[in-house]
């Protein structure tokens, strides 16, 4: 068994601790993680947790944690980052969202997995949802997607925090880049940039 770094939990040969910088986030970020995503070595949700002060990851197979989350989410102060038919462009409501938001929910998984999470937990559809009008281009190149404007969970969360609170999110991007640089998978698995 390969030895792992106690801080970043990556194998010691691909440790990313030197790239970790702290980011103070003014809201609670809760990442709802599809069960298949938690074991994925290329997962970016755990990178968010390494940087930010108030991040929680809840796996979808933890029914009790998901039930607790449902009971504590308030539609006046909680937002879901998901591009649904009823979602609103984050950039167009920036000031209103920033002033009332206390909890940001982010689904971690592929687009198909995110949709499955919404079907599994229909209460999420009652939470106001937001999408991006002017998202930056992805820098996440070690996973494939057919979605042209698709961002990693880390990039989507960072863009949201920067848009709403003008937070310097370069520590997130730098950490994602360090993870990609250390990733030992085949080049053929990398996305064209």
From TrEMBL:
Source superkingdom: Bacteria
Molecular-function annotations in GO: tRNA-uridine aminocarboxypropyltransferase activity
Hydrolase as UniProt keyword: no
Residues covered by the DTW domain: 1-188
InterPro entries tied to this protein: DTW (IPR005636), DTWD2/TAPT (IPR039262)
EC code(s) of this entry: 2.5.1.25
GO BP: any one term: tRNA processing
Transferase is among the record's keywords: yes
Keywords: S-adenosyl-L-methionine, Transferase, tRNA processing
One Pfam short name: DTW
Protein family according to the UniProt entry: Belongs to the TDD superfamily. DTWD2 family.
Protein name: tRNA-uridine aminocarboxypropyltransferase
Species whose genome carries this gene: Alteromonas naphthalenivorans
Organism lineage string: Bacteria, Pseudomonadati, Pseudomonadota, Gammaproteobacteria, Alteromonadales
């Amino acid at each position: 068994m390969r030895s792992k770094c106690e801080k970043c939990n990556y194998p010691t040969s691909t440790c990313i601790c030197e790239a970790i910088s702290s980011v103070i986030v003014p809201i609670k970020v809760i990442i709802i993680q599809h069960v298949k995503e938690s074991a994925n070595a290329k997962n970016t949700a755990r990178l968010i947790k390494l940087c930010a002060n108030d991040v929680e990851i809840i796996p979808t197979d933890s029914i009790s944690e998901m039930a607790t989350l449902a009971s504590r989410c308030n539609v006046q102060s909680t937002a879901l980052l998901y591009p649904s038919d009823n979602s609103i462009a984050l950039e167009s409501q920036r000031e209103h969202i920033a002033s009332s938001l206390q909890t940001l929910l982010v689904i971690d998984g592929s687009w198909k997995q995110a949709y499955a999470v919404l079907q599994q937990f229909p209460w999420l559809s009652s939470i106001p949802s937001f999408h991006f009008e002017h998202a930056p281009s992805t820098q996440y190149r070690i996973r494939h997607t057919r979605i042209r404007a698709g961002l990693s969970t880390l990039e989507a969360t960072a863009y949201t925090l920067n848009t709403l609170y003008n937070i310097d999110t370069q520590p997130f991007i730098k950490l994602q880049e360090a993870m990609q640089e250390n990733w030992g998978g085949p080049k053929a698995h990398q996305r064209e940039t």
